[in-house]
């Protein structure tokens, strides 16, 4: 019993220290460890988000570098397929092409409005007749390659005048030709140029 009394103080001190250590661990160290694990998980999540944002930024920079070319293409497309269903501009463009081809006469043009299609483009059937020299007809057809409107040609016929035979070319000044052309021009519906300020 005497020995127990002698070791009682160190034993109680040791047990008290152990209990105090357990209390400190459970109250302070263990929650900090859980908090640390939570912070590490958040760090991993944030690093993943940062990597994703860097990829998006690189993609946006690439798109921004292509924006000028895409806006130019959009402007060209909306010029070739305008949003306003008005054929007056088309008449002026065809007349200008006929005049620049050497034929001062206004071509005869017929227009038939077709129904709108599901993809937002409305075709307008056109047919035109021009008369003039062989050179004027050739120049007119070549001018359609750089025509400012989208024009799909469904049929072309040339009548009158001599036909080239035996590999001989027809002189450009040879008169008496009639060019008949049928096709479609188009109007977009609901399209606007988002590259220009309104």
Your description of this structure?
The chain has 198 residues and is an alpha+beta fold. It folds into 2 domains: 1-80; 88-188, 2-Layer Sandwich (Alpha-Beta Plaits). The protein has 3 helices and 4 strands. It has a 4-stranded antiparallel beta sheet. The longest helix is centred in the N-terminal third of the chain and has 79 residues, at 2-80. The chain is rod-shaped. The N and C termini lie far apart (101 Å).
How is this fold's topology laid out?
Layout: H1 2-80, H2 88-100, E1 108-113, E2 121-132, H3 134-143, E3 151-159, E4 177-188
Antiparallel strand pairs: 1-2, 2-4, 3-4
Gyration radius, in Å: 41 Å
CATH C-level of the largest domain: Alpha Beta
Strand content: 15-25%
For the record, the CATH architecture of the largest domain stands as 2-Layer Sandwich
H/E element order: HHEEHEE
Low-confidence stretches: none
Report the mean per-residue pLDDT as an integer: 78
Count of helical regions: 3
Give the overall form.
rod-shaped
Q: In total, how many beta strands?
A: 4
Structural class: alpha+beta
Strand order of the largest sheet: 1-2-4-3
Query: Which bin fits the share of residues in helices?
Result: 40-55%
Task: Explain briefly what this protein structure is.
This protein is of the alpha+beta class and 198 residues long. Helix content is 52%, strand content 20%.
Which key features would you list for this structure?
198 residues, alpha+beta, Alpha-Beta Plaits, four-stranded antiparallel β-sheet, rod-shaped
